[in-house]
């Protein structure tokens, strides 16, 4: 299977996975909550619970892919997604719905971006950068595809039918796509971890094929984990409250909604830039650009108010489009490909935990300080940028 075909298959499967999990409540929270006697906010709280479960399972997911390759893990995830969504569709009560969201969180832990990145690195080693960019480019349309489909499913069959339809798509589409991925033994460019290596790779600070001294590797691991956490706080907080933030700047509701829709195209544009010009430069350049984009955008919004609604959305979206790629490519450049999956799970664990809490925390800040809340996210992003400015890539 050629790399381009791998990217197409895995990118399509990732689009399906994101559309039927992270983006599901936007269309189904209200009808789901109404039938089961819950507040819509409770459904979003269940999504946060699922994201926390996903984060905690990240290291185990990466370790499993390091050992067995991505194909069997992602195939199992297709079935896990289907089972969780089927349970959600049949949930007779709130406790069963909680169980279904917990099961969906487990599937997300083994089946979203970090697992896909680990699968690509297991196949292509240090040459995985373009493939990582390719799948994020395709899956960047998950909300564009997922929200209309979910809305149509719900209008046609109700929210239970929508969950059942997504479960069927995981079996009929996602499972065959993941089953078509190359087997590690036949196609991998990276040898399996050596005996005893998984004990080392279970920690983000382990020696990883770049000739790093353990102490330096430890410092780099802590620094990257902190940078990714800062990026995740900003990304998740803004993504879930963008229309409300633009309204706080003085934009009307129709203008805020229409302007917020520009973030998706801006993210895709950034990923095209990474696939083209930026791929000829070290990923540290893209990481620094990603970290600085939000403070620049925030400065415009704080200074110009509603006049800067569009520039804010576009500039923030460009940076946010690079953030997802950087989380996959920068650790590869710093540590190499050995033990990548397990290390990636540990490096992104703080980011995924804080990303799950960020929508709630940013919502509180927005309610209390209004537009001033964006100053808080700008400060967090600048702290992440400062960490990247002191980072130096090891010599190859």
Automatic annotation (TrEMBL):
Q: Which residue ranges does UniProt annotate as crossing the membrane?
A: 43-61, 73-92, 98-120, 132-153, 159-179, 220-239, 285-309, 321-342, 373-391
Q: Where, subcellularly, is it found? A: Cell membrane
Pfam families noted in UniProt: MFS_1
* Domain Major facilitator superfamily (MFS) profile: from-to ranges: 6-396
InterPro entries cross-referenced by the UniProt entry: MFS, MFS_dom, MFS_Efflux_Transporters, MFS_trans_sf
What Gene3D superfamilies does the record tag this protein with? Answer: MFS general substrate transporter like domains
A GO molecular function term, named singly, is: transmembrane transporter activity
Q: Which organism is it from?
A: Rubrivivax rivuli
Protein's UniProt keywords contain Zinc: no
- Keywords in UniProt for this one? Cell membrane, Membrane, Transmembrane, Transmembrane helix
Q: Can you say what this protein is called? A: MFS transporter
Q: How does it sit in the membrane?
A: Multi-pass membrane protein
Q: Keyword Membrane, does the record have it?
A: yes
Q: Name one GO cellular component term.
A: plasma membrane
